Amino acid sequence: METNHTENxxxxxxxxxxxxxxxxxxxxxxxxxxxxxxxIVSGSAAxxxxxxxxxxxxxxxxxxxxxxxISNKKSELFPHGLYKVENLVALVSAFAIFxxxxxxxxxxxxxxxxxxxxxSVALIVIGLTVAITYLYSRWERKKAIELxxxxxxxxxxxxxxxxxxxxxxxxxxxxxxxxxPIIEKIAVVIVVYFIFHSGFEILKEAIKVLLDASLDxxxxxxxxxILEEEPQIKxxxxxTGRNAGSFQFVQLDLKLxxxxxxxxxxxxxxxxxxxxxxxxxxxxVVIHYQ
Length: 290
Fold this sequence. Notes:
By secondary structure, the chain is mainly α. Helix content is 72%, strand content 10%. The protein has two domains: 209 residues, Cation efflux protein transmembrane domain (Alpha-lytic protease prodomain-like), CATH 1.20.1510; 73 residues, Cation efflux protein, cytoplasmic domain (Alpha-Beta Plaits), CATH 3.30.70.1350. α2 packs antiparallel against α3 and α5 runs antiparallel to α6. The longest helix has 41 residues. It is elongated. The protein starts with a helix and ends with a strand.
């Protein structure tokens, strides 16, 4: 029964992640079309360039989708699963975020200013971009946390860079229109800092998982609480584990209050079931007992 519950959780998790990644593809396609069209009509080279940049975001969202599909595959060569493909995608997304920040800085700080021929169209397009990227990145981040998905979390941060970019374009358009182009350069320095910060956080978490860093403190303490509720567990020698994609693998070293092998095996089975029920992203619990 517990196995079926776990498999159902994994199936629902996978299907929802796949659906959200498809939404991201659609959002980035819509943004690129809106920006390029608006840039051409308004005469804003910055807006057109930002639309082209959104096409690269579209490629990144496609890679997230492919990564989620691959991470759910089973392979004899990878008996512990391909879950870390999600972390690899997050790692790639971090570098894509760094590149986006570099491109924004290069275009604004060293590019040439272009006159705006239709301010109202430019403002409407930028307003739509700000609203879409802000609302969608917040929603995707919320879902990524719920699903414990590193690739979706990285994708949400990547889309949030479009929100920052749109603000820079807005400041630049208004600054150029009113004769103060220096305002855009000041804004971009601030925005690029936040972009690089979010990229670094994603990079750090991806590397930690790929190098099999231990579980986070909160997860270990939650497991400890479950173990301390079991009267047959006399001593907790060690709680260790690792992350892989959305899932966690736990290892326990326990001292049990029984000499019966059969009873010890039943206690271990009960503990595993309780941990998986309380922590649905735990894929496997290995228990060593004495």
